[in-house]
């Protein structure tokens, strides 16, 4: 490609960060110099925004020891972006790429980023500009089609599984005071992360007792009945909800404008998005008269450096290497995918998926992975997800309940 | 004591759990059999509630390998309690203790638990019942007087320091989309945990940029000005708030009744405690027109098993051993304390504090530890807190910003 002249490789990060995106980036920076075809390695600052504004940094001039640290640092070292490209943006990107002799574009991101890649690849093809565009998957949401799973998911899933074990032990200890604990996970349209809360469960009485995912319409009255029933049977209820729960009318649960009286001088109108978790906790207190509280780890679940899955980390590097290899061979308009070769022992390898089959599509939890009563995950889901979170989760211990006989006192 | 007859030792856990309370419990269970004076070891189920109801389990009949797991399990293996004892409860506890020949009571807890210990110790003394009552400190709030710090704090502080580093990197990566990220920590009356967010900060531009603690009245207008100023200078603002912030009238910020329209059929009145973090995020969006979001880890910060401080873990065991030793020697109406012997290298040893000086008192952040403008912590605080969180925090890496010169495009 490119008649023997060296072409620049541009790499960017896009969408919500993960704990392992920088491992992908650093692997790309380490792999690319192995190819004689690759000249400069340009880091796009804030993804495609960096291409539009010519904000780029020279990734060949990085200290290897600093790269070692960057690879272990959560979030996105180049800066990320949520900018949605228009046709004229794609034209501008190609102008900039021409000026900088960019022949390879690797964008590490999720659904929107794959759409950006696809648009730029098509426009380059139309204009006859030789450019290999390879999307590199990364999303804690795990909602990209065309791949078994996405780098970033395994670590966030591990965070949620551990959070459920830990906050679940907390609730169990506090059961004479707290009745219901709600953990709100990310997941606007899909329940991949909420579902991961089931991965640390070893006995039926272990948390989580209830899981609600956006793949199923949410019925508040039914929810209240179920919470009461589990509380009657178990004494406490640990419940995981995805942030994007919708009712049967398609309305987000708990996303409501609220009139807030903020001070003694009058009323202020605040459009609060209380979030489904906090909303449901309030409703449980009111309707069921049970003590309920909500934890909402927010961006911690995608950025936590202490709960990185070793499997996720290795796969994040794997897709980075594969992306460089494909691009240099001139493969374009594709996303690197992960294929599961075997489940036990778990082994995966990189593949590719055409961007046309990935861009602007979402992958949902399979019907067979959600229990028929819509409050938990089946063993098929656990088999799918467990290898992705890396090392076995810790074993927690409970005391043997040898009761001391009562005495007359 | 007790004329050579063996006395039973009763141990209970009380108040909000921590990640290392079970390490204290297991150390007590392992230490007590070394003393000939100690007969049965009775675990009070849900703290003093277990004494009142004679709900107790035999802690001598525990498998050592299970105890090994329990010691590494967050929360409270015996179950915790928030029950406030009255005079008649103390009488009942003594009746039960007489019936079971309990001569040693160790209660692992915070302020309320120390009050419980003090009341029972005084009543036993008044009634001439030989009972050694020793309080064992445990609280993520770190608000017990009479001790340098409390087991449980170091691990929760480590969680908050890491959360700030991680979520801070996330915000920095998303700065073209998100402007302000708020982390809401526990801390109803004191800012010990919010303050710990400063422990991972290495450069002035590192998160957190602002810290607000309940020791200072909160001024919303001033807050808005400060957030805008930091945003102007830095491009993004990472802000940590303790849940218990109060305004100059003593009112909790963000703790307001809200009218919520929940469905198409009408209005429901929900007393939502939106929490200060989510409230301030909403106000920032409204007043400053900046993108703001809030993370609220809730019970995760006190129960996380992955961020246990090794120093905290060792000290949690140390206070357990010391409590048994004091009780068996007949020392009563005291709390085991931690004394800092040296700071560099850090070394501590157990001491004791009279419960009369501990019960129903709170320890606040020192004035000299809060910056004069009330938005951060001084180096004196960092010196105090850094040894408590154990191993050094990870070093995160940033790319060297070697700009690629722009070209005519």
Walk me through the structure.
- Two copies of one chain form a homodimer.
- Chain A is of the alpha/beta class and 409 residues long.
- Chain A is 34% helix and 20% strand.
- A seven-stranded mixed β-sheet of chain A has the order 3-2-1-4-5-12-13, sandwiched between helices. Chain A has a four-stranded parallel β-sheet with strand order 7-8-6-11, with helices on both faces.
- In chain A, a hairpin with a 2-residue loop joins strand 9 and strand 10.
- About 3% of the residues of chain A have low confidence.
- At the A-B interface, strand 2, strand 3, helix 3, helix 4 and helix 6 of A face strand 2, strand 3, helix 3, helix 4 and helix 6 of B.
A few lines on this structure:
2 copies of one chain form a homodimer. With 409 residues, chain A is of the alpha/beta class. Chain A has helices at 21-31, 48-52, 64-71, 87-99, 111-127, 153-173, 192-196, 220-234, 276-288, 300-303, 310-328, 379-385, and strands spanning 7-13, 38-44, 56-58, 102-109, 132-137, 180-185, 210-212, 237-242, 258-263, 266-270, 292-295, 334-343, 346-354.
């Amino acid at each position: 490609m490119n008649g023997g002249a060296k072409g620049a490789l541009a790499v960017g990060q896009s969408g919500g960060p993960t704990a392992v995106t920088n491992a992908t980036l650093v692997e790309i920076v380490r792999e690319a110099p192995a190819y004689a075809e690759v000249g400069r390695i340009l880091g796009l600052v804030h993804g495609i925004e960096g291409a539009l504004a010519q904000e780029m940094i020279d990734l060949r001039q990085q200290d290897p020891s600093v790269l070692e640290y960057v690879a272990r640092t959560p979030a996105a070292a180049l800066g990320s972006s949520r900018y949605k490209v228009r046709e004229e943006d794609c034209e501008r990107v190609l102008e900039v790429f021409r000026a900088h002799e960019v022949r390879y574009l690797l964008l590490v991101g999720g659904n929107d980023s794959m759409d950006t890649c696809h648009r730029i690849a098509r426009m380059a093809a139309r204009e006859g500009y030789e450019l290999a565009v390879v999307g590199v998957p990364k999303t804690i949401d795990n909602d990209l089609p065309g791949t078994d799973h996405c780098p970033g998911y395994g670590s966030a899933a591990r965070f949620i599984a551990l959070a459920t074990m830990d906050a679940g032990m907390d609730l169990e200890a506090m059961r004479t005071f707290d009745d219901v604990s709600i953990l709100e996970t990310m997941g606007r349209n899909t329940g991949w992360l909420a579902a991961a809360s089931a991965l640390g469960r070893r006995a039926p009485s272990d948390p989580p007792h209830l899981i609600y995912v956006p793949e199923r319409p949410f019925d508040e009255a039914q929810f209240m009945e179920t919470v009461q029933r589990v509380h009657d049977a178990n004494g406490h209820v640990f419940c995981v909800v995805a942030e994007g729960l919708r009712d049967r009318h398609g309305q987000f649960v708990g996303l409501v404008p609220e009139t807030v009286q903020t001070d003694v001088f009058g009323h202020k109108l605040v459009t609060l998005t209380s979030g489904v978790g906090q909303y449901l906790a309030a409703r449980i207190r009111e309707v069921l008269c049970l003590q309920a509280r909500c934890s909402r780890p927010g961006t911690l679940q995608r950025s936590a450096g202490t709960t990185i899955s070793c499997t996720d980390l290795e796969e994040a590097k794997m897709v980075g290497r594969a992306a460089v290899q494909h691009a240099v061979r001139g493969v374009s308009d594709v996303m690197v995918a992960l294929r599961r070769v075997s489940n036990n022992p778990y082994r995966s390898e990189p593949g590719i998926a055409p961007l046309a089959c990935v861009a602007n599509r979402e992958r949902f939890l399979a019907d067979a992975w959600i229990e028929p009563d819509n409050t938990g995950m089946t063993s098929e889901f656990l088999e799918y997800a467990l290898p992705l979170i890396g090392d076995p989760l810790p074993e927690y211990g409970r005391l043997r309940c040898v009761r001391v006989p009562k005495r007359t006192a």
